Design the sequence.
């Protein structure tokens, strides 16, 4: 079931585990079918674009989940082994076996990892698990209580308790109140349920956010756990976000000598992201693509702000939604055969959407037959007939693009200083954003490639070819249009291969095909100089000519020529043809590429300060009311809300604001500034009340603070 | 009593005097116990182990009811009383309830009236925690004998001298018993007492390898082991006197010591060559003492994997998002520069500064005036953000993502709140940067930012 679309998911009323009967009934209750659980109304859900959206998202999501499972797997396996081993070996008394998992700094992201660990342990029936969050552990009392409660009430495991023990477990459960959760209780519970050798379980205590725990609570907790290690087989798992020094910094000697630490390292977050990007988002399997800018924007958030893979995926999902919700025309953004099926269902509206796409116009312009132009622009059926070819071209283009990207990545990825970028994602962004050939970075790359020695160049070229071939065979071939793509690329690869073979054969011999006019008798010229002036001129001229010849960059050796030729081939075949920037992509590519970066930026990056300023400075922006329309941002109108007027007035002040002046200004704005002698008048209490209230609201919003130094003054807090 | 003492003396070498004193005080349950005994000494001197064994013996031989509890567990008085009642009267089960000290004393008094009145021993570990509990706990425990008129003795175990327990209302005197630290010879004797166990373990370990087994049988003698312990203590005794810790480390290093002997490269009797071989590993083990980092079996070979955690490595291994790194640098600068220098440091056209002899003299800082060595000062979030924007070349919006980085850094304990944690909204919260200069220099190097350039101390 889709995790976020169904808002109703969290709304089922469970009786908390206190009464087992109730819980069982709840477990058996059928969840409503996924279709009806959506927030959206039925008619939206049944639209083709929605179906396509769900389809695409589910595919991507499953793929990512699968990938992450696999990347966690190794560490988790080690960890589970560690926990299980602790049960087998008899330990020294009062030493608590502890695993420290170095997770990386985004703590919320790693909770899922601990959930996976819990599931695995449950699956092996090896342990009872309690995840102890730092927010539950403000004091030692709270910590111990939630620890015991968590272990005893570890439900997923309790489901598996054998029938004969059920009544025992039930009795325990009924008796348990929060305040009764002490270590003593835990002991008696453990001896009731698990004491026999047959089903001895480890008691795993997971602290997912080690750094957030109070040092004294943590120390005491560890001392208590280690004191009871003999009777209760505790295993402690620490999720450490920074480094092992944090552990040693928090625990003094008398505590750290009570534990036995084993360190486990998990995959670093940027590596995880790269994997997700390479395997999933850049996979040729999916018809949906992100434009270079959007792609860069999302990775930028990740790398510069939060290191949250989860956040990245949600951002991607948002783009996906935004794309598909553009209308039913976007239902074409799918596999080729499915898209063909969709064409028939397109209405006039949808066809119009397609016609309005920016890339449609060049397509129309390149048709040189008037009748056909009119047909394309007015006749829906005619366009529908044309569409399959357009879609095919588009999809094929992306496949070719992706395959060529593979080639280019291998070619320039390991050059010194990586001018074009090292990783596939950087190259992807670079190639999509602008014509690569014209960039100075590309020229730099070419130059560096031509400087390579023969062995290096040949090896590199072969690596590129092999990798592309491999990519074609593994990723492209199973796809629908894979055959077509391979058919295009194979001959080109073959050409390059031959050219590389030429390079291998080429010798270092200098080619002496100097043209006759160049072969100039140099020596005799110099002998005939009459004056020093003349000699100087001649030398100057000659050096200029030399430079000129150098600039033409005519390679002088056979080898260099062959290299040049190969590079030229690569450039024309791959870079120019396939790695075209987005603006040169085939018509109607907008159906497949999401590039509306402004919307995404506005919606997924919260800018509270800017939003507040807009709201107060120009309320019309949000309220859309007639009364507050402003010609100019700084304009002050009496019809604005009081708070807004007060805010705008306060912007004009310095650090300290005199309340009385402020009030006067407020009055003159609100009551219309026509009466000049207003200052003498008694202030209308109603206006004063409105002013006071607005100032209080402003204070509540955190813009001002009443000053204690100066009477009747407020301090501005923002600038 | 003699039986108890003699059985304990073999278990606790070098503690004969303490065992004898304890035996005289509470060795015989028919005699009146002292009201309370205070047993103190550093960690690893055998307080807890000795007391536990003593209580066990007493319970076994003289049918004394005993209770041993750890004061750390007793975060409420009720828990302590429950544990006490449970272990003093196990047969009565859950029927005994005591919500406060009064109930507890009442309960015990009732036992006095019972016909089979017995003796009771109560030991409290980490007794220094009792001071922080309810005010009546410690005085009542010390006078429990008087209050209940039972033959009852409370043994308090702690690392502090008893003077630290005195409070305003005063305490009744107790009998203090100090367990002094073991000296070097004693330590060696204690470590050497498990020789037979070590030997049998080693022989087990090489059970498959017959050649090694032979060498091992021959080489590992009492003298060999003592030599090893002697070398071991020459390195470790200065740093650590905690016997269990030494015990553990000695076991760990023994296999390294034994390695050249098993290979046949060094004679078992050639102590000086063995010393040359072991000195390095011992020293590196010394840096790791108390850390208890255990390596998985496959990685046991590379000894230097984890311990080489210099600041440089740590700073490089710590992954932070780009802006978080800049925030951290900004926080460090804010913490280690005076606020009135900010304008000069971060604003391009800050005007000319007049140089007067006075200021020059004041500026001539001695090293103890350097703010980097004085420790961090606090700063407000506004100042942090202002410096952040000043040192960052590109323009970044003040977004939620950026602001949440600050709280992430606080969570990671790289920044910490000094005051006003509750009112972040009105801008009076003050933060502090907790990382050192070395660390921040490394982070600056990663993002290509010269931190020194912006520190007043290095101007």
Sequence:
């Amino acid at each position: 079931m889709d995790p976020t679309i169904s808002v109703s998911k969290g709304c089922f009323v469970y009786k908390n585990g206190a009464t087992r009967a109730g819980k069982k009934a709840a477990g058996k209750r059928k969840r409503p079918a996924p279709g009806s659980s959506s927030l959206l109304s039925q008619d939206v859900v049944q639209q083709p674009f929605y179906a396509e959206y769900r389809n695409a998202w589910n595919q991507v999501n499953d793929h990512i989940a699968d990938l992450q499972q696999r990347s966690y797997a190794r560490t988790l396996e080690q960890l589970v082994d560690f926990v299980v081993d602790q049960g087998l070996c008899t330990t020294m008394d009062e030493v608590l076996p502890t695993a420290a998992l170095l997770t990386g700094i985004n703590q919320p992201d790693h909770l899922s990892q601990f959930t996976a660990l819990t599931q695995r342990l449950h699956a092996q029936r090896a342990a009872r698990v309690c995840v102890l969050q730092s927010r539950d552990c403000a004091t030692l009392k709270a910590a111990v209580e939630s620890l015991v409660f968590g272990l005893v009430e570890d439900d997923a495991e309790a489901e598996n308790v054998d029938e004969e023990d059920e009544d025992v477990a039930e009795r325990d459960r009924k008796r348990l109140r929060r305040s009764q959760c002490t270590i003593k209780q835990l002991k008696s519970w453990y001896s009731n349920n698990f004491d026999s050798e047959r089903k001895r379980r480890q008691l795993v205590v997971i602290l997912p956010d080690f750094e957030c725990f109070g040092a004294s609570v943590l120390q005491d907790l560890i001392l208590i756990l280690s004191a009871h290690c003999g009777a209760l087989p505790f295993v402690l798992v620490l999720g450490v976000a920074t480094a092992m020094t944090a552990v040693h910094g928090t625990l003094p000697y008398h505590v750290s000598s009570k534990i036995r630490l084993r360190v486990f390292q998990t995959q670093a977050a940027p590596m995880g992201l790269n994997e997700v990007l390479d395997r999933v988002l850049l996979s040729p399997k999916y018809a949906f693509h992100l434009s270079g800018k959007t792609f860069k924007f999302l990775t930028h958030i990740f790398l510069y702000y939060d290191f949250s893979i989860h956040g990245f995926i949600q951002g991607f999902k948002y783009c996906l939604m935004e794309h598909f919700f553009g209308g039913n025309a976007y239902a074409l953004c799918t596999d080729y055969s499915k898209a063909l099926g969709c064409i028939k269902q397109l209405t006039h509206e949808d066809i119009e959407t397609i016609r309005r796409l920016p890339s449609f116009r060049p397509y129309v312009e390149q048709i040189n037959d008037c009748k056909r132009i009119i047909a394309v622009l007015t006749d829906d059926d005619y366009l529908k007939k044309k569409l399959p070819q357009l879609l095919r071209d588009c999809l094929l283009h992306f496949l070719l693009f992706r395959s060529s990207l593979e080639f280019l990545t291998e070619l320039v990825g390991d050059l010194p200083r990586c001018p074009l970028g090292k990783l596939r994602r950087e190259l992807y962004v670079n190639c999509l954003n602008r014509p690569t050939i014209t960039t100075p970075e590309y020229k730099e790359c070419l130059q560096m490639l031509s400087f390579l020695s023969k062995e290096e160049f040949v090896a590199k070229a072969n690596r590129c070819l092999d990798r592309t071939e491999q990519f074609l065979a593994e990723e492209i071939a199973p796809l629908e249009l894979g055959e077509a793509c391979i058919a295009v690329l194979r001959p080109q690869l073959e050409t390059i291969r031959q050219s590389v073979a030429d390079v291998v054969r080429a010798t270092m011999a200098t080619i002496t095909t100097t043209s006759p006019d160049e072969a100039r008798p140099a020596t005799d010229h110099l002998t005939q100089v009459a004056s020093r002036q003349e000699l100087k001129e001649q030398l100057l001229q000659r050096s200029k000519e030399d430079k000129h010849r150098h600039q033409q960059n005519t390679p002088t050796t056979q080898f260099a020529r062959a290299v040049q030729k190969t590079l030229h081939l690569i450039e024309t075949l791959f870079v120019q043809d396939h790695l075209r920037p987005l603006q040169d992509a085939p018509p109607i590519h907008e159906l497949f590429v999401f590039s509306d970066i402004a919307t995404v930026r506005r919606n997924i990056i919260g800018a509270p300060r800017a939003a507040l300023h807009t709201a107060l400075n120009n309320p019309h922006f949000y309220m859309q009311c007639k009364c507050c329309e402003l010609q100019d941002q700084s304009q002050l109108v009496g019809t604005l809300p009081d708070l807004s007027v007060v805010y705008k007035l306060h912007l004009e002040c310095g650090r300290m604001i005199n309340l009385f002046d402020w009030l006067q200004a407020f009055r003159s704005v609100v009551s219309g500034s026509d009466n000049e002698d207003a200052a003498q008048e008694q202030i209308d209490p109603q206006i004063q009340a409105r002013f006071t209230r607005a100032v209080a609201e402003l204070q509540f919003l955190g813009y001002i603070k009443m000053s204690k130094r100066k009477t009747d003054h407020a301090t501005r807090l923002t600038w | 009593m003699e039986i108890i003492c003699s059985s304990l003396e073999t278990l606790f070498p070098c503690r004969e005097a303490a065992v004898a004193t304890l035996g005289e005080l509470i060795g015989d349950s028919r005699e009146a116990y002292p009201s309370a005994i205070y047993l103190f000494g550093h960690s690893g001197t055998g307080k807890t182990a000795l007391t536990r064994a003593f209580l066990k013996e007493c319970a076994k031989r003289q049918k004394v009811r005993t209770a041993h509890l750890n004061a750390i567990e007793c975060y409420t008085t009720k828990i302590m009383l429950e544990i006490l009642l449970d272990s003093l009267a196990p047969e009565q089960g859950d029927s005994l309830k005591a919500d406060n000290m009064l109930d507890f004393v009442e309960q015990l008094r009732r036992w006095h009236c019972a016909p089979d009145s017995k003796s009771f021993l109560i030991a409290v570990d980490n007794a220094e925690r009792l001071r922080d509990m309810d005010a009546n706990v410690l005085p009542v425990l010390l006078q429990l004998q008087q209050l209940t008129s039972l033959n009852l003795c409370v043994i308090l175990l702690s690392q502090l001298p008893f003077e630290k327990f005195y409070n305003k209302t005063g305490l009744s005197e107790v009998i203090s018993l100090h367990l002094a630290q073991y000296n070097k010879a004693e330590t060696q004797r204690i470590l050497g007492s498990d020789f037979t166990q070590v030997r049998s373990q080693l022989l087990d370990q090489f059970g498959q390898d017959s050649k090694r087994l032979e060498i091992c049988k021959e080489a590992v003698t009492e003298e060999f082991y003592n030599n090893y312990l002697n070398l071991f203590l020459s390195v470790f005794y200065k740093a650590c006197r905690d016997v269990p810790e030494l015990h553990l480390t000695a076991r760990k290093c023994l296999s390294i010591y034994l390695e050249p002997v098993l290979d046949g490269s060094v004679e078992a009797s050639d102590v000086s060559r063995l010393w040359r071989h072991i000195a390095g590993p011992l020293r590196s083990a010394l840096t790791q003492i108390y850390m208890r980092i255990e390596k998985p079996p496959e990685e046991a070979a590379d000894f230097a994997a984890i311990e080489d955690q210099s600041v440089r490595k740590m700073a490089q291994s710590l992954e932070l998002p780009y802006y978080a790194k800049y925030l951290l640098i900004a926080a460090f600068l804010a913490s280690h520069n005076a606020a009135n220098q900010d304008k000069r440091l971060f604003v391009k056209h800050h005007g000319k500064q007049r140089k007067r002899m006075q200021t020059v003299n004041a500026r001539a800082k001695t090293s103890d005036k350097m703010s980097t060595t004085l420790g961090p000062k606090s700063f407000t979030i506004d100042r942090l953000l202002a410096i952040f924007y000043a040192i960052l070349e590109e323009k970044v919006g003040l977004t939620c993502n950026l602001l949440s980085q600050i709280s992430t850094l606080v969570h990671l304990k790289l920044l910490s709140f000094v005051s006003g944690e509750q009112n972040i909204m009105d801008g009076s919260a003050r933060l502090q940067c907790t990382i050192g200069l070395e660390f921040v220099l490394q982070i600056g190097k990663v993002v290509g930012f010269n931190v020194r350039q912006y520190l007043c101390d290095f101007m």
